[in-house]
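in:
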């Protein structure tokens, strides 16, 4: 008996294998999209902090107050108003604008030692509570010795 073509069982087996491979591929791409959004968020936080450091460096009034103390705070809204950072900067995880009342803390690490350097972090003050938004690497961990902001959806893993 010469048969031409495939049986129904063979076709169903091929379709099942293709569907399984498609499902695995889709789940891999969705996981990589989540990771890239977290990395995009960390990069936006780093961009904000770098803009604040440039802003302080280029403005003598801020620089002199920084020299007198060991830390200064710059509002995100001030950076946006002076065009150091765009005013429509959005959180890639939530799609919402970053609050303009976020504070970028710029501080000296080991200010009296030979190895002193400038570092930064982003914090949020709500009443008397100060919470960490992002450290200098853009992640919400080990942030200026402040409590982590567990209620926001902007905290991302510290496994970097």
């Amino acid at each position: 008996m010469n048969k031409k073509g495939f049986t129904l069982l063979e076709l169903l087996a091929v379709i099942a294998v293709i569907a399984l491979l498609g499902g695995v591929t889709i789940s891999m791409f969705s996981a990589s999209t989540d990771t890239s959004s977290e990395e995009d968020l960390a990069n936006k936080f780093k961009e904000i902090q770098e803009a604040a450091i440039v802003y302080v460096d280029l403005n003598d009034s801020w620089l002199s107050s920084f020299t007198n103390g060991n830390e200064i705070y710059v509002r995100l809204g001030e950076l946006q108003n002076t065009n150091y950072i765009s005013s429509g900067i959005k959180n890639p995880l939530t799609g919402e604008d970053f609050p303009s009342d976020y504070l970028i803390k710029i501080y000296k690490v080991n200010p009296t030692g030979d190895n002193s350097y400038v570092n930064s972090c982003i914090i949020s003050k709500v009443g008397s509570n100060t919470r960490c938004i992002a450290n200098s690497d853009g992640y919400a961990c080990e942030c200026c010795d402040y409590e982590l902001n567990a209620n926001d959806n902007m905290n991302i893993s510290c496994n970097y």
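note: The first helix runs from residue 8 to 58.
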